[in-house]
Amino acid sequence: SRPRETLRLTARCPPPHPQSVMLQIAATELEKEEAAEAEKQNYLSEHCPPLHLPGSMSEVQELCRQLHAKIDAAEEEKYDMEIRVQKSTKELEDMNQKLSDLRGKSSGPTATRRMSADAMLKALLGSKHKVCMDLRANLKQVKKEDTEKERDPRDVGDWRKNIEEKSGMEGRKKMFETES
């Protein structure tokens, strides 16, 4: 059985040499470039006639004037086409805006939705923490006192009494104690 195995190993082809593979690839690329160059020359010979330059200065100037006139005409045509494209683009945008207005869809910014305190805590802490926070229940009830209605404008009192009470260190001490 051993002689057959050695025959099989020797019957295989050796791997190609890297230089020969590179030469084959380069040859195919060179053929593609030559075909592209030939195609380019054929196109130029069909579409662009050879340029005949006149010998005298006046003929060269006349040729330049003709070329400038052709360039000006081409530039005017290009400018007119650009203006038409801009105008049609603007009309298309206006029509799209009218269409969206008719459908009732506004293209303005989306309104942000306010989150409740419970939803905010749930988003921050995750779903594993169940925290119910009723802020309104924690608020203190404050009764409004109508101080102006209780006081009578005729019930002002003696101004000298107030001054005597507040004079001296004891009066100042009382003033600070009542304010805080």
From TrEMBL:
One of its GO terms (cellular component) is troponin complex. One of its GO terms (molecular function) is actin binding. It holds the Pfam family Troponin. Keywords: Acetylation, Actin-binding, Muscle protein. Residues 90-104 have a biased composition (Basic and acidic residues). It comes from the Eukaryota. Residues 90-112, 143-180 are annotated as: Disordered. GO terms for biological process: cardiac muscle contraction; skeletal muscle contraction. InterPro entries: Troponin, Troponin_I, Troponin_sf. Troponin I is the inhibitory subunit of troponin, the thin filament regulatory complex which confers calcium-sensitivity to striated muscle actomyosin ATPase activity. Belongs to the troponin I family. Binds to actin and tropomyosin. This is Troponin I, fast skeletal muscle.
